[in-house]
Amino acid sequence: MKIDIISIFPDYFAPLSLSLVGKAIAKGIIDVDVHDLRTWTHDRHHTTDDTPYGGGAGMVMKPEPWGEALDHVEATADGPLTVIIPTPAGRPFTQATAYELAAKSQLVFACGRYEGIDQRVIDHCHDRYETLELSLGDYVLNGGEVATLAMVEAIVRLVPGVIGNPRSLLEESHSDGQDALLEYPNYTKPPLWRGRSVPEILLSGNHAAIAAWRREQATARTRARRPELLTD
Ligand code: ADE
Fold it and tell me: Which residues are listed for S-adenosyl-L-methionine binding in this entry (predicted)?
């Protein structure tokens, strides 16, 4: 999988060389290219934003550098692009979205700042590429960079070969194997820590009973924290 990221803050993406995503890059499973949007500005100040037509607070990202940046990524791509525009005005990014995007071959993240990108760039993307405007949640970040980091991590861990034991994906929160319940609580050694013991059942070796207990815990947790996820 190829991932292109376009941003005015390429340094935000240094953490992608760490941990699981870094290992996937090192193994050649994914290839990440971070592009500085200012590469495609042509004035002395490398301007990427301007005041909004119609007035209002804040600045809007100018269309010209975005057009050239997208043309460049398209020209150097091997296949069809899927463009992701992180925005608080987008559809929610969910585990289902992460699975859908993990099956694509070329993702492009277009990170807006300020009040966002000129709408004509977004319309151009919808016309020319498969394009998703996605929100991480109902809060506002300063730009698309942190949202991109989160989405890239959620997507890359689902790409085959990235996680050593793919069974662990089936048992986590929001996965189909869990019927989209929140994950049950986990414990490891020692059996007693600061007066708190590991639930007896987990030491019993009775796998059917353990599975039933975990399901009960997952359901209770989901009911308490995210009742809207329960269908019955
Ligand atoms: N950019 C700013 N806020 C965002 C959010 N909540 N999700 C995705 N991108 C964003």
Answer: 112, 136-141
Residue 72 dihedral angles phi and psi, to the nearest 5°: -65, -45
Ligand 1 centroid from CA 219, angstroms: 30
Residue 222: Cβ within 10 Å count: 20
**ipTM metric:** 0.96
Query: Which of 5, 9, 140, 152 best tests ligand 1's pocket when mutated (most atoms within 8 Å of CB)?
Result: 140
Residues 103 and 179 placed together within one structural domain of the fold: no
For residue 20, give both structure tokens: 């699981």
Annotated binding residue at 140? yes
Q: Please give the single-letter amino acid code of residue 41.
A: T
Distance CA(103)–CA(113), nearest Å, equals 28
Q: Which two tokens stand for residue 139?
A: 């809060």
Number of domains in the chain: 2
* pLDDT tens track for 53-107: 999 999 999 999 999 999 999 999 999 999 999 999 999 999 999 999 999 999 9
CA distance 221 to 56: 44
DSSP-derived pairing of the beta strands 192-193 and 196-197:
antiparallel
- Domain co-membership, 91 together with 119: yes
**Look-up of token digits 């960079």:** 145
At position 224, the amino acid (one-letter code) is: A
